[in-house]
Amino acid sequence: MRRRALEYAAFLAISLLAAGSAAAQAGEIALRDDTFLPYREYSAGQVRLSSYPNLIATELLARVDRKTGAISTLVSLEFAYGGDHLRSYESARNARAETLRFNAISHRRSCEKKDLCVYDEIFTVEIPETELRGAPSDGYQLKVFARGGGDAVVTVPRATIERLLAAVDKQRP
User: Fold this and answer.
1) How many Å apart are CA 34 and CA 10, to the nearest integer?
2) How is the chain split into domains, by residue range?
3) Cis amide prior to 136 (ω within 30 degrees)
4) Alpha helices of 60-157 — where are they, by DSSP H?
5) What's the CA gap between 84 and 119, in Å, rounded?
6) Sign of CA dihedral 109, 114, 118, 123
7) What are the distances in angstroms from CA 107 to CA 67, 91, 112, 162?
8) Strand order in the sheet with 55-65
C-alpha cells in the first residue's frame, strides 16, 4: 500500500519534469489557437521550480480576446506534495499585498494510509498585464496562500515575461 503512494509521488515528479515542452526548453512561445475558445492563448511553457517531495511547476500564459483584442495574463501553478492534509490553496497577492484573481482548477489526493498521502493542486492567478510589463529585473513575485499552511512565494523570471509579451505584441494588428 505504501509502495503505491510512493509510486504515485514518483509518477507526479516525472510528469512535472516531462511537462516542460521542447518549445519551452528552446525558449519559444507556443500558440494555442482553438477556434472554439474566445481567445488565442500564448504559453511560455511549464517550468519546474522545486524538487521532490514538494514540486512546484509554473506556466506563464497570455490570452488575447478574439473580439476585443484585450490581453489577460496569468500564471498557472501546480503544487504536488506529500503530507497528512490538503493545503487548499485559495488566494494570491502581489508584492504590494494587493489581491490577485485566483481560480482553483483541481485538487487530487492519493492515500495508502491516513498519514501517507500525495496531493496535487492546480490553480491559476491572473496578473494585470501592466504589472508584468513593469516587472523588475529579478522578475515578478507573488505569494500564494493555503488554508492548511504551505504558503509560497513564486517568481516569474523577467526573461520569460519579455519573451511572452514580445510574442503577443508581434501578433497584434
Assistant:
1) 33
2) 2-171
3) no
4) 129-133
5) 9
6) positive
7) 33, 15, 17, 31
8) 30-32, 39-48, 55-65, 71-83, 116-127, 102-113
pLDDT tens sequence across 28-74: 899 999 999 999 999 999 988 776 667 899 999 999 999 999 999 99
CA distance 161 to 173: 21
Alpha-carbon torsion (79, 85, 86, 90), positive or negative: negative
**pTM (2 d.p.):** 0.81
Residue 48 in grid coordinates: 519546474
Per residue in 129-172, pLDDT (tens digit) is 999 999 999 999 999 999 988 899 999 999 999 999 999 999 87
Cell numbers at residue 168, please?
503577443
